[in-house]
Amino acid sequence: MLRKVVRSSKFRHVFGQAAKADQCYDDIRISQMTWDSNFCSVNPKFVAMIVDASGGGAFMVLPLSKTGRIDMSYPTVCGHTGPVLDIEFCPHNDNIIASGSEDCSVMIWEIPDGGLITSLTDPVVKLEGHSKRVGILSWHPTAHNVLMSAGCDNVVILWNVACGEAVVRLDTVHTDLIYSACWNRDGSRILTSCKDKKLRVLDPRKGTVIVEKEKPHEGSRPIRAVFVSDGKILSTGFSRMSERQVALWDPKNFGEPLTLQELDTSSGVLLPFFDPDTGVVYLCGKGDSSIRYFEVTDEAPYVHYLSMYSSKESQKGMGYMPKRGLEVNKCEIARFYKLHERKCEPIVMTVPRKSDLFQEDLYPDTIGPEPSAEADEWFQGKDGQPILISLKDGFAATTKAKEFKVHKSLLKTTSSSAGSQQDNSGEVQSLRKEVKDLKAAVEELTKRVSELESKH
After folding, report:
1. Under DSSP, is residue 360 helix (H, G, I), strand (E, B) or coil?
2. What confidence score (pLDDT) does residue 433 get?
3. Is 431 a residue whose pLDDT tops 70?
4. What's the rounded Cα separation, in Å, for the pair 22 and 368?
5. Residue pLDDT, tens place only, 98-107
6. pTM, whole model, 2 decimals?
7. What does the sequence similarity comment in the record state about its family (predicted)?
8. Which of 120, 75, 72, 131 is CA-nearest to residue 96?
């Protein structure tokens, strides 16, 4: 009898563990919207969740340390007039978050360091350009202040947030609703999946389709897709018999998938989260109570099933912590923030190791918060590679000067025309007062000179 050889992998024994009750965020009314976005965004400072709000849309931003029961009157970010559909923290500044809403607008908010003291209603920037609700947001991974938004008007817009304008508008590419849109590692390509059953790889600045794949999955339910290692594409979708599938594609040869696996017959859309450092992809089904994880490698069958984290309660949304927010000394390789009906529960993925030393094979240099290009440079054609940081001594935050610069560049263009007129009128008034004072001083001096002359 032939013995089956088990493929060796350092991630074969990765296990997920939910945080203890006192480490969860309780009594939060998570949004009841049926939109297929993550509903949650996290970074090393804050966790943000879309919540139910009467008369408009709102989301809550909590410092990571503020666990336990959250008071009903806790302040929210509530400037939208329609429900919020997607939120995402800026990768280059942990205090900046973008939100897209049913009111067709995108808003950029600045969260103070200790969290909110009063509710936020005025955004730093309001971006208007979509004619229908905005359901997808994604910050550029390497260029500072570049944001992509996709709306139900089948339009993708690339914004220069620093000056609040839409620089690129892709309005002829998609013929139907856009299901997902994401960047590749250096932000030189965009990958979209659409209701017209096509995957498209786009040149973001030219607005052209580089390559497209018709019907990556036969079923009619939503398809999700992300870039993985070496420019390959991982997609999740449904078969004609409504079985959930995961497939891996090589865009250089889009004819047949490198691998196509059937998973189960659940109806929830699978949200993929890919970690480029470890090559592990996590599939979190909306409405599921489990997270499956796979290792993506160069050898067939390319996508290797590792294990599954299961719990009793289903997830309404999921936040994924950037690598620099993880606890390295505990061999933590991923952390999710799972949204229940009334709470947010952190789930930690760990590689069991006996040693307390830094595990270099688990933590290669990872993407840091420093951008490698400014928005103007990127729109003019500069591609910046991600600036990597070592996690060996734990991640140290960037200097205050950097953050201040970011805020200034965001703020300098955001005051409405009325605000700038107000500033100008104030400036004019102070100048007039100075002129008046100078005139009075000159008159006084002239008077004294004439008095002295008459004496002599």
Report:
1. coil
2. 62
3. no
4. 30
5. 999 999 999 9
6. 0.85
7. Belongs to the WD repeat coronin family.
8. 120
